[in-house]
Amino acid sequence: MHSNRYANEDNLINDFSAGRKEAVAELYRLFYSRLVYLTRQIVQDKNEAEDIVSNAFIKVINKSRDFDNIANIKAFLFTTTYRTAVDSLRHSRVHARMQKEMSYLSDGASMPDFDFLLVKTEILNAIAEEIDSLPKQCKEVFVQIFIKKKSTKEVAEILHLSDVTVRRQKQIAINLLRTALLKKQLLGSVALFIMLMNHESLM
Amino acid sequence: MKPETIAQIIERSLRGQLNDEEQRVLDQWKKESPLNEELYDQLQDPQYVAREVQLFREADWQKAFERFQEEHPFQQSRTPVIRRYWVAAASVVLLFAVGLYYYFFSGSSPSQKVVNNEKVTQQSVVLPASRQATLILADNKTIQLNNAPTGEVVRDASASVQKTAEGELRYEGVGKSSNTVYHTLVIPRGGFYNLTLADGTKVWLNAGSSLRFPATFSGKERKVTLSGEAYFEVKKNKEMPFWVETDKGAVQVLGTHFDIKHYRGEPMFTTLIEGSVKVASEQATANKILVPGQQAVIRERSSTINVNKVNVALATGWKNGVFAFNRASLKDMMNELVRWYDIDVVYHSDVQSSAVFMGEFDRNIELSILLKQLGQMSDLNFDIQGRTVTVSMAPVQ
After folding, report:
1. 8 Å CB contact of B67 and A54
2. pLDDT tens digits for B282-308?
3. First vs last Cα of chain A: how many Å apart?
4. CA nearest to A174 within chain B
5. Are B295 and B270 in contact (CB under 8 A)?
6. pTM of the model as a whole
7. How is B180-200 classified by DSSP, letter by letter?
8. In angstroms, what separates the C-alpha of B328 from chain A's closest C-alpha?
9. Which of A1, A126, A180 sits opposite B7 (nearest CB)?
């Protein structure tokens, strides 16, 4: 369904200025998940975050003739999203202060830092893409074990694989990610290694 | 530093693929904030990573786009439905407009990517700053350096002043002189200049600055007086400490790289890149010693010295041809443009001056191009008439 006509940025900006929906789809593909992730760092609620991001896309489409390049669109999307999310958070804190039972929301915490959230978003995005590019079966096993916390046996059932296959795929995923995550001599990575080792032993 | 850059470095560090330079950048980034340090530690935990990655996976762009298409069917012209939606959203934003944030990415050079064929009507082209300076000698004689030819500009008993092929000024001691002769280099708005003092110290001067200094150094100390902004690479000399004085405070140096910024009516900022400096307030009632990566701030009506960690690349970006803003207010940002482009600024009363700017921009682009980019990335409108820029809020469509 997704075409490759946007290898060139100029095509994308031209099509977007002309109001073509393929260009809008491409912008969604490029930025949607990062925008939602960033917003969820601020408002937590998934639906509200998605609404905020959708609004940002609507605004950007309304201004579609005003942008010279993709970097400017990206900047506008992220700043608009961030600002709306922060406003929403401030609003719910004001509201919470008026209802004392929810005072934990307005505990005087400062506003989330835009620069920091951008960095965090970019990092996790890079890692998510790396996981996404694991071989298919490998990725599925990884997701079941580390994200859904299933045991080897359960995974074998869910994915209709033999126990041996599951263990093997898990090992491949761990190896791939271990080289990805483990090489540095950091305290954290030693703990990670131990954790992975313990997990493997829970056959 | 751009988020994409540090993200790449962190990703590579998790893979153990960092070189020394990148390791330094990473350590510097971690030191800048406890949030950074904490995030880096969290990333070592695969459960944390898996949980966060899951949030990404939950955001299905295709479903979202389909939903968008259902609610706003595509038409070439804008439909009332979309417009109404936009107005509702905008009013929410304006209600809580205190503390707006803007961010701009310098990804592509703005001057290269003007794709739309818009009619560009402007009365005059406003060019960025160029090398211009006036040298004032001890006898108050003035020399316009832009017109001066390469070679010796002036010579007296103690020093020879040369203009180099690159258009910089260099001082060379030629003989001993009992009197200390002072020269002043004045950089107008719309100008910048570099010079090398008689001891080998290099100075970069930003627009709207002036430096008063001895043609040659003798005695127990080297003292210069600065108004505006300068970046110093001071030649080490333990027997002759180097001092920079402004009317807000003084900085004592042994041999090092640092930036001092004090424009009239603004705080004094001293940023240390390498070496060590001591910053003293004007009445010498307080002083602080800086280590690299720190910045000392003395506010306008105060003599308290506050020391913070900063991103030194941002603080000294100007020397490398970029505007680098780190949470600058709209006013601070416009002041930089005023000095660099030699323009005036007028603010509409509806402008939210609590806007905060972060990011980097190439300094060597024509003003209208820069302002066009800023206008696209934010809710502000920049209108140029001659050499005056009017800032207002962009109309809500």
Report:
1. yes
2. 876 778 999 988 999 998 778 889 998
3. 40
4. B46
5. yes
6. 0.60
7. PPEEEEEE-TTEEEEEE-TTS
8. 13
9. A126
